[in-house]
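Weekly sync notes, structure subgroup
Attendees: PM, AL, DS (notes)

Item 1: joint prediction request from the bench team. They want all two components modeled as one assembly rather than separately. Inputs as received:
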Amino acid sequence: MSDTDLTTPTEPAPRARVVDTAQYGLAAFLAVVGVVVVLDARSLTRGFADQPVQPYALPYVVGTALLVLAVLLAVATWRGDRPEAEGGEDVDLDQGSDWVTVAKLVAVMVVVIATIDVLGWAICGAFLFAAAARVLGSRTLLLDVAIGTALSLLTWYGFYVGLGIPIPAGVLDGVL
Amino acid sequence: MDLLLEGFATALTPENLLYAVIGVLLGTAVGVLPGIGPAMTVALLLPVTYNVSPTSGLILFAGIYYGGMYGGSTTSILLNTPGESSSVVTALEGNKMAKAGRAAQALATAAIGSFVAGTIGTILLVALAPNIADLVVKLGAPSYFAIMLLALFTVTAVLGSSKLRGFVALFLGLGIGLVGTTTGQQRLTFGSPQLADGIDVVVVAVAVFAIGEALWVAAHLRRRPLEIIPVGRPWMSRDDWGRSWKPWLRGTAYGFPFGALPAGGAEVPTFLSYITERRLTKRPEEFGKGAIEGVAGPEAANNASAAGTLVPLLAIGLPTTATAAVILVAMQNYGLQPGPQFMDAQPKLVWGLLASLFVANTLLLVLNLPLAPVWAKLLQIRRPYLYAGILFFASLGAYSVNFQAFDLALLLAIGALGLAMRRFGLPVLPLIIGVILGPRLEEQLTTALAISQGDLSTLWSEPVAVVVYLVMAVLLVVLAVTAVRGRRADSVVDQAKNSYQEVSM
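Output from the run, pasted for the record:
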């Protein structure tokens, strides 16, 4: 899963055909989405008489286009077409990709999604910040938690008092 | 003119002036943060506007927008790697100037150039938008349909280096736009009541910009810190002024028209401006080593094009850049639909907004020249905190739409798509524009065919529609010809374009 060789896109592609295998995965994803869209369109019935554009018309177009694009992308990949991964201020494409960190961040967010209805934003937000900072390399646990708590309380009260939007408080209902 | 004066009366009330100041400061602060471009700035700050009155909210937004644009140029001058395609050119000479100890002058010419270009651009916007709206209001659904098709086509095929990837992103966006029950039947809702209202564009924008970016950076976080150049208070010598003012004006002349075209964006005009300045300069030897003209021109072009993109946005309701798309989302949150009737229906609001653009532009200059050293300090923020903070505020933004855990799950899923898009070089802009314009395309087609009672020929029954289709045909031919001829090797635009991924954030 390393895409270390994407750093100098200005260089002409090397003669040897390097296939970006992962891109077949993207093509497969497009194909799946295309099939789902077309199947869903088939389940739609004819609309009202005054509906000149049937509800399934656009889905058929989009679904078919996705299928065609999936094939085109697969062919392009096979012919050695490689993507230009996106650069940025803090992006270092010279190193390999660190998917473990990404997986940990996703796990943190899944925990938040699972617990936010019960625990409320104040607790989940603090956890989200502190845990994400830790995953990203911060080693000052107490400080991270303190900043996270401050942020989530500030935003909670900011929304509640400043904007008049009551964010559900979860278990802290009545405490905040 | 009276309307504009009334607009100033709206914009200059103490309350709204305060909102403008807050907007400019927030926008600049968030825009300066590395990894956050104007579009993400606006997307992340969307919740701030939820409970403010529409006028104040839009004034806040105007400040955030212009502040975010300015913040982006600070980042690209002081750090070499630009966070968005429109600042790529600024980084070329700007960072060289900074390294040569002229960071203050680079920031000053960028700030003053942005002010000059922003002011001229806003004047042109004020002059043009109402007239264009008057013309557009006469157009029927077939013409709208054609113009939207053209916008989708140009954003996808003309901008961006890989057409195939552009179309992949576009159709994924159109697919997301299908979800919901707008046609009276459940489409792609998989029986979920939460999906019946469609996927909120706020969630899509925040997910693709913020979550996708944070996850992508997490996978590639730079282990060694970037070199940040210290900066004093920005100022310019007489010589710098002499070398800057013509590039400012020329940059404005490039930027505004390109911004106003349906294939908007600052990429092309900033490159054109850079090339022009390099050709016209009396000191060609300085180019590549930090020529002030190479900062002044492109920065002016960048800001003028930002004002230009507001022409189609306000007059037609057509977003042509990622930032404009997010601003459109903000307006729709207020139940406002920009377009030809918008100016007549909401004169107070529109002219208040236009006047506040002038105000924001002036505030930017007054506040940010002295504050530049403070903003530069923001670049040193610890990266774990920066990206944890982006995740935090993105989640808050998505959660505050409906207070449903479901929206957070959607945020994560589309964020994962955003990550994949960065990994596979898919441009973000066509996806966002597809999500927004897809449903409206269907709506216009329905309207057109309902009036013609299903007769397809109505689609080319209006002269404007015919012209638009001809333009698309010509573009197709040009694209096909250039594709057959292969890549022209030494075009500066292509080279520079290829060296950075189109981000348009």
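Discussion: Confidence is low (pLDDT under 50) at residues 488-505 of chain B.
Action: AL to compare against the crosslinking data before next sync.
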